[in-house]
Amino acid sequence: MARHKGSVFGALGEEAQPSSEQLRNDLAIKWSKLCSSKWVYLEDEGARIGEAVLPSSLYQRLRGASLVLHLDVAFALRATRSLELYGPFGAEALCSAVENFRHRMGHRYTDELQELLRQGQLRPVCEEILRNYDKAYDYHLNRGRRKDQILRLEVSTLNCSAVAHDVVVPAAAAREAAAPEDTARLPSGQSKSAQVREAKCFCGAVISRATGDPAAVSICHCSICRRLSGAPFVASAVFLPQRVQFLSSLDGGEPQLTELQTSKE
Fold first, then answer.
1. Is residue 250 a contact partner of residue 256, using CB atoms and an 8 Å limit?
2. Residue 146 near residue 119 (C-beta atoms within 8 A)
3. What is the pLDDT of residue 178?
4. Is 0.85 topped by the overall pTM?
5. Where's the CENP-V/GFA domain (predicted)?
6. Counting CB atoms within 10 angstroms of each CB, which of 19, 76, 99, 116 has the fewest?
7. Tens-digit pLDDT profile for residues 52-62
């Protein structure tokens, strides 16, 4: 959904990323469709994925999870997987991505890695970058967590289906031991007594009618929203499309609407 794989190479082969606001809305809609009786597995990423930022509430939930599965993949397999993913993009694209390491590794070391890439020596560069990332991954994995929260599982294959099959049994046993209060409650739009909310547009010609609770609510206090609304902040709610109806205040029929886009999305 973020259209980025999370590393300096994560943008290769992906479409342009959504804005953080669009990602938040997309996540809210996906989240509202999940089953509240089942566990949700999320990749233990940082708060920022490329240029997009995760909603703080979701990131806090992720960091506070009662169970963290550490899939310990053999170093050689990880290097092979990375080469399969990013090798086809060529030396120049990889050199451009490695440029992002300059502030961390220094000029001389970054130049050496880029020269190796131009010589076609992709694997040594890949392995060195993985070693660099491992330090950050280990710190991120263990920061603020107890040892009993982390379940380490060895992985010896790149077959994703086989890995998922091997993870199911130990993960199920570990998650059953989690405290009930650690289970996230998911919103449901299927309530028989769902509340109906109505609001008019600025001129009063169009009525919006939304049924049930929103998938997400956000507050913005940027200068543009303050200027447009005349208020110190603007509260926005995201509803599933099928739960929203627009009516004309004149005859109750469907109004003629023109789409206005205020962002790249």
1. no
2. no
3. 58
4. no
5. 197-265
6. 76
7. 998 888 888 88
Structure tokens at 246: 């627009």
For every residue of the chain, DSSP letters joined together read: --S--SSTTTTTT-PPPPPHHHHHHHHHHHHHTS-TTS--------SEETTEE--HHHHHHHHT-S-EEEEEE-HHHHHHHHHHHHGGG-HHHHHHHHGGGHHHH-HHHHHHHHHHHHTT-HHHHHHHHHHHHHHHHHHHHHTT--GGGEEEEEE--S-HHHHHHHHHHHHHHHHHTS-GGGSPP---S--TT--EEEEE-SSSSEEEEEES--SEEEEE--HHHHHHHSSS-EEEEE--GGGEEEEETTTSS---------S--
Q: Are 237 and 216 in contact (CB under 8 A)?
A: yes
Q: Give the model confidence (pLDDT) of 189-232 as tens digits.
A: 444 467 888 888 767 778 888 888 777 677 777 777 677 667 77
Which secondary-structure segment (H or E) carries 235? strand 234-238
For the record, the structure tokens of 183 come out as 């289970």
d(CA 20, CA 48): 9
